[in-house]
Amino acid sequence: MGYEQILYEVRDRIATVTLNRPDKLNAWTGVMGREVRQAMDEAARDETVRVIVLTGAGRGFCAGADMQMLSGIVDAGTAARVEDAVRPGPEADAVRSDFRGPYAYFPMVPKPIIAALNGATAGLGLVVSLYCDLRIAADSAVFTTAFSRRGLIAEHGVSWMLPRLVGLQHGLDLLLRPTLQVQSDIHVTAFHALFD
Question: Half-sphere exposure (CA, 13 Å, Cβ side) for 113?
């Protein structure tokens, strides 16, 4: 299957899904959202795949929602375009209602999903990383949200998930402070060896 905004590769029983808009720091679009979901479905069905790695091309994981997509929503005056961009396929009728959200399908993937976070992990990029089973941050990883600066609530369950993963104090710090630099001695390449 061909993809426009992601790369998909299976090698050594590892499916690697790479967000591939490096010139835009892999800013999330409706096309990208649909393609990531298709790739996750493809990896889930592939019996040779044991683990899925989700990463970003270039110097960032995902800088959040693409501003042109957000401008289109404002211009239209409705969130319908976002819903259309991530609307599940016809198979969704067989899915529990609490897993029908735009990114809530991640827990339904029957294989571990590892987020390999390089560089900017912002807004919607942070949300997507939280839906993965494991997150590994490079030394260059920077986590940020803009919810509080824009007077918005943290969307897509991030205000529930984040404190449960990093603790209440760190979660609030990340949601309310502009930027958090993360230092990590763990490198993603070391985890490929676990699945050989």
Answer: 24
Cβ partners under 8 Å of residue 16, min gap 6: 7, 8, 9, 10, 52, 53, 55
- Residue 82: partners with Cβ closer than 8 Å, 6 or more residues away: 30, 69, 73, 102
Range of the domain at 42: 6-195
Tens digits of per-residue pLDDT, 24-60? 999 999 999 999 999 999 999 999 999 999 999 999 9
Residue 90 has what pLDDT? Answer: 47
Identity (one letter) of the amino acid at 184?
Answer: S
Q: Domain for residue 1, yes or no?
A: no
Stated pTM of the model: 0.75
- Rounded Cα distance between 1 and 46, Å, is 13
Query: In angstroms, what is the C-alpha Rg of the chain?
Result: 16
